[in-house]
Amino acid sequence: MTWRERLPPVRGRLAFDEPLAPFTWLRVGGPAEVLFIPQDEQDLEAFLQGLDPGAPLTVLGVGSNTLVRDGGVEGVVVRLGRGFGDIKPLDGSRLYAGAAVLDAALAKAAGVAGLAGLEFFTGVPGAIGGACAMNAGCYGAETKDVLVEAYALTRQGRRLILSNEDMGFGYRRCEAAAGQRLIFTGALFQGVPDDPAEVQDRMGEITARREASQPIRDKTGGSTFKNPEGRSAWRLVDEAGWRGRLFQAPAPLGGGGAMFSPQHANFLINPGEATAADLEGLGEAVRADVLARFGVPLEWEIRRIGTPAA
Ligand SMILES: Cc1cc2nc3c(=O)[nH]c(=O)nc-3n(C[C@H](O)[C@H](O)[C@H](O)COP(=O)(O)OP(=O)(O)OC[C@H]3O[C@@H](n4cnc5c(N)ncnc54)[C@H](O)[C@@H]3O)c2cc1C
Fold first, then answer.
1. Is the CB of 123 under 6 A from ligand 1?
2. Has 223 been annotated as catalytic?
3. Residue range 150-197, pLDDT digits in tens
4. Which CATH number fits domain 3-82: 3.40.50.960, 3.30.43.10, 2.40.40.20, 3.40.50.360?
5. If you count DSSP H runs as helices and E runs as strands, how many of each does the chain have, helices first?
6. 189 forms bridges with which residues in the sheet?
């Protein structure tokens, strides 16, 4: 029997060959061999304890930083939903948020509670699990600055509490979660008491700044490349002439084409009917061009998962 035939019983949703494109911002890519949406933490824990250790496992948040390749994702894809959506105030200046809580919803809750420090989450369109895994941040603040501890399950279904230090945070990186070793189920954040009106004003400023500078209504994956030491990725992409230029992978892989946003040159966008091959092909073409022109290796910030179309 294969691992697929020996999946543990669950209370949540298990689906086979489920398209993943609707679960990502870029809206491309093939299906998950198995998609699991656990009902709650106990459901996920029991599933992981019973899952064949040989089954590949991938975690997906709200897919705002993920490109799913056209051939889909082998193994089990876990996607956290409503059962991980609680926000709870604790000890006056702390907030617990489940891993499926949108970053913006946590920022809003902090604003209502009059807690400063979490305003930046308003500018990140992911969920808390993704924020922990990516050390998400913007405008000089990041998850590392406000996280007290994170709650996770190991691949074998063992519960862990990780302190801020245990997370091994770096620039858009969390060493503890590398290689899909952990599934975050929630996290505890520290705020600083402040006037709620002032916190909300600062969030309003972040939203306005985002609207003016980023293609937030497009099908995009956020920053495509990490900023190389001392350089701006967007400037390198722009100076190499790729802003707004349509790129199509060769048939039969190519679809409607992909481009770097005319509004922000480090934002890869799907202007309509792109395939994952169009998007990744463009990213790779730009990396090669920037390396050849400026000698700077660009590193992907967008997580690419799955296999190319056969
Ligand atoms: C318009 C736009 C603007 C953006 N601006 C910013 C920005 O300013 N700053 C910034 O940092 N990012 C930004 N991003 C990128 C993205 O929103 C963040 O990286 C976000 O933290 C990803 O969260 P997610 O839930 O979408 O994760 P996903 O894209 O679903 O996953 C990203 C990674 O996190 C892992 N992951 C997700 N959930 C869990 C979990 N529960 N447990 C373990 N691992 C998990 C996945 O396995 C994957 O490796 C932007 C994206 C868009 C589309």
1. yes
2. yes
3. 999 999 999 999 999 999 999 999 999 998 889 999 999 999 999 999
4. 3.30.43.10
5. 7, 20
6. 95, 147
Give the span between the Cα atoms of 200 and 115, in whole angstroms. 10
CATH 3.30.465.10, domain 85-212, yes or no? yes
Task: Write down the domain spans for the chain.
Answer: 3-82, 85-212, 217-305
Which residue's CA is minimally distant from atom 21 of ligand 1? 131
Alpha carbon nearest to ligand 1 atom 8, residue: 138
172: annotated active-site residue: yes
For the chain, give the number of residues: 310
Q: Kindly report whether the global pTM for this prediction surpasses the value 0.70.
A: yes
* Token couple for 309: 């179309």
Instruction: Report pLDDT for 1.
Output: 86
Of 274, 277, 305, nearest to 73 by C-alpha is 305
Residue of 36, 124, 206 with the most ligand 1 atoms within 8 Å of its CB, for mutation: 124
Give 173: exposed, middle or buried? Use CB within 10 Å, 0-12, 13-18, 19+.
middle
Cα angle vertex 173, ends 234, 76, to 5°? Answer: 110
Q: Is 60 in the pocket of ligand 1 (CB under 6 A)?
A: yes
Q: How far apart are CA 297 and CA 269, in angstroms?
A: 21
Q: Are 51 and 40 in contact (CB under 8 A)?
A: no
With a cut of 90, say whether residue 145 has pLDDT above it.
Answer: yes
Architecture of domain 217-305: Alpha-Beta Complex (3.90)
